[in-house]
Amino acid sequence: MDELDLHYPSTCPFCTIASAYPPPSPSSSSSSPPKLWSQWNSHSEDLTSSIPSDAASHPEKTSPSSFVVLASADVLAFLDILPMTGGHLLVCTRAHRGKVEDLGAAEARSVGFWLPVLARVVKRVAGTTDYNIVQNNGARAAQVVPHVHFHIIPRPETMPEIKNKSWTMFGRGQRDELDDEMGAKMAAEMRRVLREEVGRIEMKGRKGPKL
């Protein structure tokens, strides 16, 4: 093992979240929403079912708490518990993949589908037009959790003071911890807005060709 890998957590926290928030069950109902990306995704899930209910996304299913916004077959999204700014969202693969180069075709397409949708959600909830999407690969590239993930970081007009450039994801350190009550409220609002975004996509899918 490379000496730079020694700081990695012994148990992948993102895999723990993935286990606690399972993917939606396949629906056989003919009245279910159109499966807009079944041609991409072997799971043939409909999009709405990938957004957990408030009850299903209870944050205390893991320790530390997880504030989940999306739990699809291939992709998860949840609030960073040490956010750089309010609304800092992490988007990761459900399966454990170390780096982007390890993604399979279906996973890559799923990530590519959800990233712009979630970016719109972050913008709306954070009330800003600007944001970063950051993705690190390997310890030398500042990847702390060795499970491929993307940061969507809203950039408000008035930026909080950042003491240093650490990208620490878990544990105490360089950024303030997310308050549980605030995290639960923000995640619930993001799920609500995500349902609206997905509703618009599904409506377009009914009217025209599949994505």
Automatic annotation (TrEMBL):
Pfam families xrefs: HIT
All copies of domain HIT, residue ranges: 55-167
Name listed for the protein in its UniProt record: HIT-like domain-containing protein
Matches recorded under PANTHER family: HIT DOMAIN-CONTAINING PROTEIN, HIT FAMILY PROTEIN 1
Catalytic-site annotation from UniProt: H149 (tele-amp-histidine intermediate)
One of the GO biological process terms: nucleotide metabolic process
SUPFAM superfamilies found in the cross-reference section: HIT-like
Taxonomic source organism: Massariosphaeria phaeospora
Short sequence motif Histidine triad motif: positions: 147-151
Superkingdom: Eukaryota
A Gene Ontology molecular function term of the record: catalytic activity
Region (Disordered): 22-41
Gene3D superfamilies documented for this protein: HIT-like
